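ZP: hey, is the P-hydroxybenzoic acid complex queued? I don't see it on the tracker
AM: it wasn't, my bad. submitting now with these inputs:
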Amino acid sequence: MEIVKTKVAIIGSGPAGLLLGQLLYKAGIHHVIIEQRSAEYVASRIRAGILEQVSVDLLEQAGVDQNLKAKGLPHSGIEILTNGKKHRVDLSSLTEGKQVTVYGQTEVTKDLMQAREHAELTSFYEAEQVQVDDFYSKPKVTFHYHGKDYQIECDFIAGCDGYHGVCRASVPEDKIKTFEKVYPFGWLGVLADVPPVADELIYVQSERGFALCSMRSETRSRYYLQVPLTDHVEDWSDERFWEELKRRLDPESREKLVTGVSIEKSIAPLRSFVTEPMRFGQLFLAGDAAHIVPPTGAKGLNLAASDIAYLSSALIEYYHEGSEQGINEYSEKCLQRVWKAERFSWWMTHLLHRFETESEFDHKIKQAELSYILTSQAGQTTLAENYVGLPYEIRPLNNLQPVG
Ligand code: APR
Ligand code: PHB
């Protein structure tokens, strides 16, 4: 058995694990990443693509914002299409100049992996039978890697291993509470090398269900349709997808829509899920391991980033200042922001999707709410403030010496 000693063992090499690794590296705190998939698999997963201003600031702090600054598309507004008419929500003017940036999570992941490779940091990809133990005393991570058994001895374990990961599953049942809401539909997503139908994202509420027109660049579009959970990707030829999207759009967008061959097509279920607390002894959960939001508010990656901002700050405080305050406050601080993002994502989902179970009364109330939001300054501000991201503090990383 190979024994490796480190300060922090990070489980999972998604955006949460990679960003934590990069921030700890910058702060001179030794860590390793253990990931069950291959590096190629991790770098090619297609996910969402909207970064809050604070997430951009955090990536800048981590020193991985070069591509993001060069290729990210800053957006100062979004369109909401309802009753066949588009309404622009001017995010920037409603939030004292804040904006969001369109930049694929796939790219964020690749940038972080590249930085990691450049700094020659230790990652165990394709680790098998990963197990976390003794996190209420002396934490250990064991796994099988390239034909050998490994044991990592560490001060802390960061569970960044997503919704299906091993970390949350290892917590004793009586120490954890979960909250969940499953929605009765999914999103069918298509990625295609065609120019986006509009300069800004269009969130579509229609009688035929929700749709979203998003993008990855000026030549690559990302579109979504609300579909029943019983649908399979094979049911949706490209032609059928484009036809249905057109039906949900307004006449002008329908006319402008450029269709093409899909380069990725998948159906994702929608779920709201929260774990309380987010710390168990020396084990911290972060990102999708701790919570899931439906994609309607574009909060998944951004919430993972804010967890990591709090966790990296807590660990820096612990190692550089000898204080456990950040560690002790981690769960509560995260959960306050998490629940607000959960509320916003649930609300956007509720407002813009068609629910089979809703009565005519429910439907009328929803239309009235949407109309109120889009015609009132206060209503639009509440949407804009949440969409661009609720603020949090980012700890400066200057002048930190490596921790022995
Ligand atoms: N051992 C090691 N690694 C694991 C294990 C395990 N037992 N289980 C899962 N993993 C890995 C997965 O293979 C994946 O690479 O953990 C990683 C988790 O990454 P993500 O699922 O991307 O989660 P996270 O980093 O929290 O990112 C959150 O991803 O799903 C989106 O909407 C979400 O944008 C948000 C972001
Ligand atoms: C995306 O571009 O993939 C995207 C954008 C906004 C969302 C969800 C997904 O709300």
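AM: back. The first strand starts at residue 2 and ends at 5.
ZP: great, adding it to the tracker
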